[in-house]
Amino acid sequence: MTDALTVxxxxxxxxxxxxxxxxxxxxGAAAGGDLVVFPEAFARDFGEPGSDLGPYAEAQxxxxxxxxxxxxxxxxxxxxxxxxxxxxxxGRPFNTLVMRGVAEAAYRKIHLYDSFGYRESDRLVGGPxxxxxxxxHGWRLGLMTCYDLRFPExxxxxxxxxxxxxxxxxxxxxxxxxxxxxxxxxxxxxxxxTVYVVAVGQPPPRYCGHSLVxxxxxxxxxxxxxxxxxxxATLTRDVLDEARRTNPSLVNRRL
Length: 255
What we know:
CATH class: Alpha Beta
GO molecular function: hydrolase activity
Shape: globular
Radius of gyration: 17 Å
Protein name: Hydrolase
Structural class: alpha/beta
Order of helices and strands: EHEHEEEEEHEHEEEEHH
Keywords: Hydrolase
Strand content: 25-35%
Organism: Nocardioides gansuensis
Number of strands: 12
Number of helices: 6
Number of domains: 1
Family: Belongs to the carbon-nitrogen hydrolase superfamily. NIT1/NIT2 family.
């Protein structure tokens, strides 16, 4: 178990060219610490609203996940990135996070973005309703994707399963109030659960950017802007332990 975990947030946009996106993984991983986090749908952008994502779905051992594993191994790190994964419905893939490297895991997005005029469930299928928590250097990381952030019951389920940090790759669609919602929800999930939240988004113009890391007392450790950039932060166990002593809400819960 380590007392500190270094995280790198790669706030880059994905294109409609899967090969070009794979090629960028190595550069992002080379900049990283213990965990390098790319946004949701980094393997290939969603494209125009309503467009078919089935042709861009891959297996968890396909070209994208294989490249994630290779760049993680080359840099002795762990990489987390979003892709579209084949499902039993050829026309509706999973929206999946793949983690490869020192730790390995996969999370299929539970809450599909049927909101603000979008219908993600027309193009994608939701994953199983169960928390995914993975151990990395003694830190317990709970995985979420974008719209999941609006559902506090998932973050609480992850914390009940032992999560000490929530990692949230996203493609948070831009629009009125959306940056305010993003920042508020990231901080709320950190404060109410006394966990770190590592939230990585794609940048404008289509998405909001503002990737950030928030500590268990709600302090923003680092926050990006609206350009492509790479951010670094360190999660420390003494801050986590102190937050849970100061605000023992997990101990005091009644439901």
